[in-house]
């Protein structure tokens, strides 16, 4: 969808369509961040951290309440980590 607006003088400004980067599922998943201290720093300072899957955000929820991100699980498994089932 493109938004247009006529300006004085006949110019038309177009706002580009911004496609969502994902469907929001990553917001409802727990992620793996290295080093683990980056999560604590992000919570305290409000600076974003980056998960193994590439998601960058400021953590604010209890990750134990959410399923583990399949992309993070895949990367961790490829690195030889054992991921607990629960």
What can be said about this structure in brief?
By secondary structure, the protein is of the alpha+beta class. It has a domain at 20-78.
Describe this structure in words.
The chain is α+β, with helices and mostly antiparallel strands and 86 residues long. It has a domain at 20-78. Helix content is 21%, strand content 14%. It is built from two helices and four strands; from the N terminus they run ββαββα. It has a two-stranded antiparallel ribbon. A two-stranded antiparallel ribbon has the order 3-4. A hairpin with a 5-residue loop joins β3 and β4. Residues 1-7 and 13-23 have low confidence and may be disordered.
Helical segment count? 2
Spatial separation of the terminal alpha carbons: 43 Å
SS content category: alpha+beta
Our estimate of the beta-strand percent is: 5-15%
Number of strands: 4
Give the helix level as a range of percent.
10-25%
Please, what is the average pLDDT?
Answer: 77
Keyword list:
alpha+beta; 2 helices; globular; disordered N terminus
Provide the fold topology.
Elements: E1 3-6, E2 12-15, H1 37-45, E3 49-50, E4 56-57, H2 70-78
């Amino acid at each position: 969808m493109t938004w247009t607006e006529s300006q004085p003088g006949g110019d038309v400004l177009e706002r580009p369509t911004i496609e969502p980067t994902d469907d929001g599922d990553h917001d409802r998943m727990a992620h793996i961040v290295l080093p683990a201290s980056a999560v604590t720093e992000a919570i305290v300072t409000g600076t974003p951290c980056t998960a193994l899957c590439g998601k960058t955000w400021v953590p604010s929820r209890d990750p134990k309440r959410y399923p583990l991100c399949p992309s993070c699980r895949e990367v961790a498994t490829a690195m030889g980590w054992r991921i607990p089932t629960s």
